[in-house]
Specification:
Length: 274
């Protein structure tokens, strides 16, 4: 239950950061809708990933299998609540919410005996793409924005989530191999995966430098820089061979979104004022 709430909180934090970077006044109802979307998707994912979880997380795997019906019920009820909350802001937001939900279910369940998440890179692109779509498009349901800003925010969010999803796959190498799931770590190995992620994270250095040059995303640029540095630390920390014995620390991979959201709150409230 804690994991479900935590992950949903991370999804809300990502949306909140997107609101601020796009300079759009946040919507409490859309934040709430995203929270329940996170609960719905995570609960559904636990059902579709029973085979992998039985190897990677034996205790949790047994719990998920025993409570499969409750998880499905929680998933369906949560998406219903998310749709209702989104409706009161903009009926078009329902399309974004449902698209994210169906995409998550489709990649996990698959079609015609083919689990799309077993396709190399598809899992990571689907996760990053789905979350980025919701985080970027929902603020546009409140207020339109400049295409350039939207593209900049899209790249930052997508790449960070992509890196985080691959880092979780590093932890799950053993279970994914036994389940026949092709991920970046099972294909490239731990060392090459680390080098790839470091290269991708380095593109965010260019992104930050360009943002400074164009004088955009003020006053959040400092925490965006910290996010890039945090990315380097996460990659170096969680691609080590010994990281497989440190499962509790994996919450730190996504914790930076919480930090970024909390850092931005005073500025969003107009403090300090110039």
């Amino acid at each position: 239950m804690f994991t479900t709430v935590y992950i949903s909180g991370v999804v809300v934090a990502i949306l909140y950061v997107s609101f601020l970077l796009q300079n759009v006044v946040y919507s409490a109802l859309l934040l709430g809708a995203t929270f329940f979307l996170g609960i719905s998707v995570y609960s559904l994912n636990r059902v579709t990933d029973l085979e992998e979880d039985s190897v990677n997380l034996p205790d949790k795997g047994r719990f998920f299998k025993k409570n499969r019906d409750y998880l499905l019920f929680a998933s369906l009820e949560s998406i219903n609540i998310a749709v209702v909350l989104a409706f009161f802001i903009n009926p078009s937001a329902i399309i974004v919410i449902l698209s994210a939900f169906y995409m998550a279910g489709f990649y996990g369940i698959g079609a015609r005996r083919l689990r799309l998440k077993n396709i190399l890179l598809f899992k990571n692109i689907a996760i990053a793409g789905t979350m980025t779509m919701a985080a970027v498009l929902l603020p546009l349901m409140v207020q339109s924005n400049i295409a350039f800003i939207v593209l900049m925010v899209t790249y930052y969010i997508f790449l960070n989530i992509f890196i985080e999803s691959v880092l979780h796959d590093v932890r799950d190498i053993e279970g994914d191999r036994k389940a026949g799931v092709r991920t970046v770590p099972t294909f490239l190995g731990r060392n090459k995966t680390r080098n790839l992620l470091l290269l991708l994270n380095s593109t965010l250095v260019v992104w930050v430098a360009f943002s400074l040059f164009r004088a955009i995303f003020y006053p959040y640029i400092f925490v965006l820089i910290l996010g890039v540095l945090y990315g380097y630390w996460s990659i170096l920390r969680f691609t080590r061979a010994s990281a497989k014995t440190s499962r509790p620390f994996y919450s730190f991979v996504t914790f930076k979104w919480m930090v970024m959201a909390l850092y931005a709150v005073p500025f969003a409230l107009g403090w300090p004022s110039l």
